Amino acid sequence: MRDAQLQEILKQTFGHSDFRFDQREIINSILDGKDTLAIMPTGGGKSVCYQVPALFSDGITLVVSPLISLMHDQVINLQENGVEAVYLNSSQSAQAKRLAEEKIVNKEVKLVYVSPEGLLSGYLGNFLKGLNVSLIAIDEAHCVSQWGHEFRKDYTRLGELKDIFPEVPILALTATADSRTRSDIAYQLRMNSPEIFVSSFDRPNIKYNICERKNELLQLDRFIKEHHAKDTGIVYCLSRKKVERIAKELADLGHKTVAYHAGLSPEEREREQEAFNKEEKIIVVATIAFGMGIDRPDVRFVAHLDLPKSIESYYQETGRAGRDGKPSTAWMIYGLQDVIKLTQMLETTDANESYKKVARHKLDSMLSLCETGQCRRKTLLSYFEEESQDCQNCDSCLNPGETFDGMIDAQKVLSVIFKTGQIFGAGYIVDVLRKSKNAKILDRGHDKLSVFGIGAEKSKNHWNVVLRQLLNLNYIYIKNWEYRSLGLTAKSAELLKGQVPFIMRETKENLIVAKRSAKTIEANHDRLDLFNQLRELRRELAEEKKVPPYVIFGDKSLHDMCQLLPRNTDEFLLVNGVGESKCTNYGEAFLKTIHQYSQTSSQNIL
Ligand code: ADP
Ligand code: ZN
Hints:
Blueprint: H1 2-14, H2 23-31, E1 36-39, H3 46-56, E2 60-64, H4 68-80, E3 85-88, H5 94-105, E4 111-114, H6 122-129, E5 133-138, H7 161-164, E6 170-174, H8 179-188, E7 195-198, E8 206-212, H9 216-227, E9 233-236, H10 240-252, E10 257-260, H11 266-278, E11 283-286, E12 301-304, H12 311-318, E13 328-334, H13 336-347, H14 353-371, H15 376-383, H16 395-398, E14 403-405, H17 407-419, H18 426-433, H19 439-444, H20 460-472, E15 476-480, E16 485-488, H21 492-496, E17 503-505, H22 528-545, H23 549-552, H24 555-564, H25 569-572, H26 580-605
Parallel strand pairs: 1-6, 1-7, 2-4, 2-5, 3-4, 5-6, 8-13, 9-11, 9-12, 10-11, 12-13
Antiparallel strand pairs: 14-17, 15-16
Helix pairs in contact: 1-3, 2-3, 13-14, 14-20, 17-18, 18-20, 22-24, 22-26
């Protein structure tokens, strides 16, 4: 019964015919009054998890969201779908605030977006206390945790929401959280034995490609021209200076670019973000300050010219590609310089030692993703504790020639760890492998072991790579964070017995962009003419309404229209992303264009 009603809301209001991932289960859990933690990859559809129950419930749904631009986009999107929503934050004029509050008091809105700062204190806190709140959703919930990668002070007081609204269930949502961050979120938000849902992190439409830096500008230019000449994309750099330089150099090479970083004024930032949202075929070169507010679903590539500091960041940033589910590329180049720069940044912050340890570990994992000879996707997913098969679509899968069998080396490392008692860190293990006669080894008599010096012919760096990869694939683990001592895992026996392969990547010559796979070539749509016409119509409507084109319809909806060729509003409602409000507002215009197209193309056939 409830299920049918929820499904109805999803279809009527949002135009989706079915829930995906764990959306249904998450919504049911929250409607049963349980605190709920939902981990869903970027682009997975987290908003539906609180927007649908918001429409189903009597009271108001409070949505805590960290970024003002994000709130703004969400509210516009909801209004486009015929749902009344408002936001309250520090950027508003007194008048806009009053207007929003009036709507809330008159029960004209179902969703209220608020920023975390000031939420709990002063006037706003008191105002909210008096409302009939049925659900609290906390978006980007990993910001509450020091273990996460985007800790925000504003989030730390959100636990107090439980004092104000002890009976109201909390839904915490995030795209990236390892198990430690997960439990920390639950703890910080004082959730009562939360139901936890972890959706798959797999983004099968994204092709991962990581290579060594030679000449970054030429590599990037070539990558874009060969694979994404007509597309919109994001290029991430570490520093402002580099952002400006690359934006200019790319423009000189004939690309349409905008630059975006935290050094711009708020007006400039807004202008650049808007340009990115509205234009076709545009490349934004940006620091990671550009990101959280991006809702554009048709970003076809995300390129990294500098290494992100963790796999969480990499995953989140690359996740901005292909939210519409169409083939997209995550492309990155890296070099030794990145490692030095990032390590330096990390070591020179005033953060405490335990934070630094976590950060070091995260950086190491990021490096192993670069160095692995295994499928990138598989490695990425295994970091999020998800098992998977080789994807046959990343550079490792497509260029297996650049790898070699590392089994014997891996076994050597495991033997040394085992024989020395599983109490030492990587440095010591490498010393034993390489026959180093340092005092510590001699004191302990480890020079007498049969494994002493079994890896003497290879470099320190080589053994570090083997160790990182073993760590990354869970053949070994860090037993003690303080001493970074390494231990064997339940999986290591398989490798010692040679029952599983251990493939390594040749790090010197892995530069060239992976071969183009038939799979990833932009999906051919037979009705390209129609698609272009619909896109033009969308652009006109967007201009008229002063909203970004994708707010009208995503590419996916346009493709769907080309496939279905709907003849009337009933059929139009079958199109992915078309709910009643959009059908009423735009149905006629789109149906007309489709009708004209069908007429002329059937004449052509005759
Ligand atoms: P997230 O916040 O998880 O990054 P969003 O909530 O912005 O993702 O949703 C990403 C995209 O997925 C949006 O374009 C949304 O319309 C679409 N979407 C969400 N749920 C569904 C669904 N059940 N079926 C199809 N598309 C969906
Ligand atoms: Zn792969």
